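Sanity check. The docking grid for glyoxylic acid depends on where the pocket ends up, so I'm generating a full predicted complex first rather than guessing from homology. Inputs follow.
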Amino acid sequence: MTPRVHVTGPVPARVAAELERDFALVDEARGADGILSLLSTTVDGAYLDAAGPQLRIVANYGVGVDNVDLDAAAARSIVIANTPDVLTRTTAELAVSIMLALLRRVAEGDRMLRRREAWRFSLEFMLGESLDGKTLLVVGPGRIGRETARLAEAFGARPVYAGRRDPLDELLGEADVVSLHCPLTPETHHLIDAAALARMKPTAILVNTARGPVVDEAALADALRAGTIAGAALDVFEREPAVTEELLTMENVVLTPHLGSATRRTREAMGLLAVGALRAVLLEGRRPENAVV
Ligand code: GLV
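Predicted complex below; grid placement will be based on this.
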């Protein structure tokens, strides 16, 4: 019998075509043998139980798996797969993009022109900061963190790293740019809170392309208002898709709507990797290379 797969949201046409080749696509999780889940779907024990005991794999369309209860999946012997590697360069590129956009006031300048304000070239006008010579603290030195550091080095940044066992508090005080690349776990929830922000230099900026809840967004708004730090570039939000209202009003804040892996090529590659995991489990009876549980 053709395995039944449920997809929790729209996927690129190329990925849908691959799914249709090998699987019967079903509208509900209930009764599915495999699920292709988007990050916006919460896959917890109740969700897995509602799908039913025939469910064998959930392939998550993303590298972060914080939307999935891994323990609940393991307890039910359900394989969980993610989409690493294919989005590393793309996500690092977005991190450096919003970092530079904030430092060089790209978005702020764009907003000013769209307001049709009078302006003229002048030597003291809208001066920014170069990444050249800056100390870049990479919080979470995994694949994306290291690639971000490598790209930023081309602009003259000097990377330092904070992993799980490094003294984050000390490193925060040395950095000009703090860029977050850790997964969201109970340990990293609100890792950047009021106390962490207070340790940063008043001239430093925060960049988040990881997960919103790694930052206490209310504390961040407070810190930006008080001048505790100089700015923030955010691609992810604590209560996504909502953005803390005050951040929307601040010129020293660059905001993008969770675009880290958002290129057609990368999104297709992620989808094909997820389809490969579904095939491995449902057609070939083997554990996929990209299994996390
Ligand atoms: C995107 O946020 C991902 O985790 O792939």
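Relevant for the grid: The radius of gyration is 21 Å.
Also worth noting: The chain has a mean pLDDT of 98.
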